[in-house]
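Sample log: H/ACA ribonucleoprotein complex subunit 2.
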Amino acid sequence: MAPESTSTPKKEKKDKKRKSEAADLAPIPAAEGTASAEAVAMEVDGDKALKKQKKEKKEKRKSLAAAEGAEGEAEADDKKGEFSVPLDAISPIASPLAGKKLSKKLFKTVKRASKARQLKRGVKEVVKALRKGEKGLLLLASNITPVDVISHLPLLAEEAAGVEYCWVLSKEELGQAAGTKRATSCVLISATPAKRSAPKDGSASKGASAEDLAELKSSLEECVEEVKKLETTIKY
């Protein structure tokens, strides 16, 4: 029978020493309510606040970048829609001629009129509307050649009651605002509500909404007031 192994006093002392060293190295958790526990809590809260702040800054940078991108796209669209017209291409009878700021406002009104179906495009439609007694604002392109095709329109506008007229630089811009693929020599923004016949099948007629008509009326009145202030150097 093998004798029972017994640990020597020397081995027991070494084990005790190792256990005591391990206990010294192990971190002692701070008791709740003590200064050390509050310090740990403050450190954790500080880390959370820092992470939150970094996240907010990142989101803010993203939103600013998106806003700048949208503005850049809008500016690019505006520049894309602009056409340069040489001075020698402008008709000598183009008076009063709208400036850049007023032209933008006029083109926006043309777009609204096209949407509300209150726009007459081209010489034939404009002459027909003026002879019928429609009121509104006549826009003429200054770079039309030969200018004889529209030279009679200012006289018709002056003879008609409730019609103002104004020249804009580009026939291309005028056509673009009017919703056509080709350049347009003239348009009439009609202030007279269009009469739309009801469909034969008895369904409701598709006309402009009251909101669109109200926006057009307000914009048109504003444009007419500004056109009246322009200086006219040529009297027909």
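Observation: Strands lie at 119-121, 136-141, 163-168, 186-190.
Observation: Residues 73-80 have pLDDT under 50 and may be disordered.
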